[in-house]
Design goal:
Distance between the termini: 31 Å
Helix content: 55-70%
Number of strands: 3
Order of helices and strands: HHHEHHEE
Number of helices: 5
Strand order of the largest sheet: 1-3-2
Length: 101
C-alpha cells in the first residue's frame, strides 16, 4: 500500500475515520455491546438512545461531568451523519419510528 491510498482511506473510509476519532472508545465499545455481541443488527432509535444515555451517565461518573457532554440523541445523530457513517438510521416502512443499524 502506498501513502496516497492510505491517506484516501483515512479520509473516506468509515472505519478509518472512527479509529481517528477522539470518540472511538465510546462509539466502538457501545456499538459492540449493543449490536455486535448480541448479534442485533437493527434496533429502535429510542431504545438505542436510552441505552447510550445510561452509558454516558456511567462514563461521566467515572471520567467527570465534562466527558461526552452531548446527550445520547445528539451522539447518535453525529454517528449517523454522512461524514461519519458509523450508524445508519431509517424509518420502517409504514411507521414513523426510527430504526438504526
Amino acid at each position: 500500500m502506498d501513502h496516497a491510498t492510505l491517506a484516501t482511506l483515512r479520509d473516506r473510509h468509515a472505519a478509518w475515520r472512527l479509529l481517528a476519532s477522539p470518540h472511538a472508545p465510546l462509539v466502538a465499545s457501545f456499538l459492540h455491546r449493543e449490536s455486535v455481541a448480541p448479534r442485533l443488527r437493527v434496533m429502535s432509535e429510542a431504545d438505542l438512545a436510552m441505552s447510550l444515555e445510561d452509558v454516558l451517565s456511567a462514563l461521566r461518573e467515572q471520567l467527570g461531568p465534562e466527558a461526552y457532554p452531548k446527550g445520547a440523541p445528539d451522539h447518535l445523530n453525529d454517528w449517523a451523519a454522512p461524514d461519519k457513517g458509523w450508524l445508519r438510521t431509517y424509518c420502517k416502512p409504514g411507521t414513523d419510528e426510527a430504526r438504526s443499524t
